[in-house]
Every structure is written in structure tokens, then in C-alpha cells.
Amino acid sequence: MQGRDAPSQPAEMPSGGGPGPLALVGSGEYLPSMAALEASLLQGRPGRYVQLATAAVPDGEEVVRKWERMGREQAERLGVEAVTLPVRERADAERPEVVAMVAGAGLVYLSGGHPAYLARTLGRTALWRAIVEAWDRGAALAGCSAGAMVMASRVPSLSGPASDGVEGLGLLPHLQVVPHFDRFVHRAPDLIERVSPPAGSGVVLAGVDEGTAMVGGPVHWTVRGQGSVWLFAPGRQEQYRAGSQLTTPARP
């Protein structure tokens, strides 16, 4: 595979005047090792860190509360306010009092778990519309693992056939995201073949290694973290290491 290197420091994105930065994270949400990334997303934006742990709901309430606690601890490390969205089921994402909690966000973060559950719970809801509107006004928007996968129009199944995938949230219809890429591809060498979008779709498969993020978007990105981002499309297979810049195709 080919690699491209670029300056190690990404340009800061100003807040206001248009959409904020996006971050698609392979793993590591709320860990101290990822605090610098989350701080950079909040830079120049309100110190209001809105967090959504809905993807962990199928694992039980104890697990959800663990992620919510970790999110609050990360916000404390960053010196900002943690706003935990209490969304366990789809009806919660339509409650006006929950939707109102997104107002004034500097960063909205969708943490990991079960991508199909997250997509079905959040898709086409008042809460998702409020999140997109906040991003359109300049807030940063990040997703880790399942939270990154649902940003696309299609969420593939990483453990079964491609037909087992579900509809995503559609913010990045030109991408299909596989987080934990270094770990998954080691365990399932046929993963790329199984989950790659159909030829001619105009959609690129982005594999994001653990502890790594692609930041910027929707088209121009910088790789941050300890690993690489991998792009797969017909006739294109490239590795982008930390500090590299990459361009993904426009919306199909």
C-alpha cells in the first residue's frame, strides 16, 4: 500500500461562519491519551461538551453509566462542562428537554458500542437534527467506534455478511467507516472484501486504527493519534500515517 506524509500540525479550524470540524475516531474516547484531540476540537468554541453514550445501551445500564462517568472525567480534565444526554431509546431522542440540551455545544461526541442500535435510535429524530444544526453553526462533532460508523449512509456489519448492515445517519454519504481497523483486519483478513462499498457507488471505505482519528472533513482531513487511516476504493488503497493529510471524494 502507498503512504503519504504531510506536515505534522493540522491547521486549526475557526469556529463560526460554517460547519465545525468532524472527528472520526477508531477507539479511545474519553481516555487521557485522547484528551489533546478532544481539547483541540473544543479550541475556540464554548466549553460545553455534549456526550451521548446511547450506543452502549444494549450492554446494560451499568456499562452506559461507565461511559457517562468517563465522559464527565474527561471534561473535568479539559476544564469544560460535561452535558450527558439521557437517551436510552428512540423516544428519548424526541423529548424537547433532551433536544434543548444540545444548545450552546462546543463539541458533541457520540461514543462507542453497538452501531446498529445507535443508528436506529438516533436516525431522523429531533435530537439528531439538533446535533446537525449545532455542527452547521460551528460546533465540533465527533464519533468514536460505533459513533464514527453511524456518520455514513450505510453501517456495515463487521461480524457478518454485508447484507446485515443498516442505514446510517447520512452525514457523510461518501464514506463508510471501519473503526479499530488494525485489530479487526488482523482478526478477519477478508474484512475489506466483505464490507467494501459496491464499485461505482462513489463511496470510499475508511479504516481508522485504534487510538487514531481523522479530523476535519467532510472532504479534507488530517490524521491524528498513534496509528493510521486507510482508504480503500477501486484502484485506490492507501495508508495515511499520523500527521498526514488526505482527501476523500465529495458526496456521491
Brief summary of the model shown:
The protein has 252 residues and is an alpha/beta fold.
Task: Write the topology of this structure.
Elements: E1 2-3, E2 22-25, H1 35-42, E3 48-52, H2 61-78, E4 81-84, H3 96-99, E5 107-110, H4 115-122, H5 126-136, E6 140-144, H6 146-149, E7 154-155, E8 166-167, E9 175-178, H7 181-187, H8 191-195, E10 204-208, E11 212-216, E12 220-225, E13 228-233, E14 236-241, E15 245-247
Parallel strand pairs: 1-14, 2-6, 3-4, 3-5, 5-6, 9-10
Antiparallel strand pairs: 2-11, 7-8, 10-13, 11-12, 12-15, 13-14
Give a structural overview:
The protein is α/β, with parallel strands linked by helices and 252 residues long. The protein has a single domain, classed as Rossmann fold. 26% of the residues lie in helices and 25% in strands. It has eight helices and 15 strands. The strands form three sheets. An eight-stranded mixed beta sheet has the order 4-3-5-6-2-11-12-15, with helices on both faces. A five-stranded mixed beta sheet has the order 1-14-13-10-9, with no helix packed on it. The chain starts with a strand and ends in a 5-residue tail after the last strand. The N terminus is likely disordered.
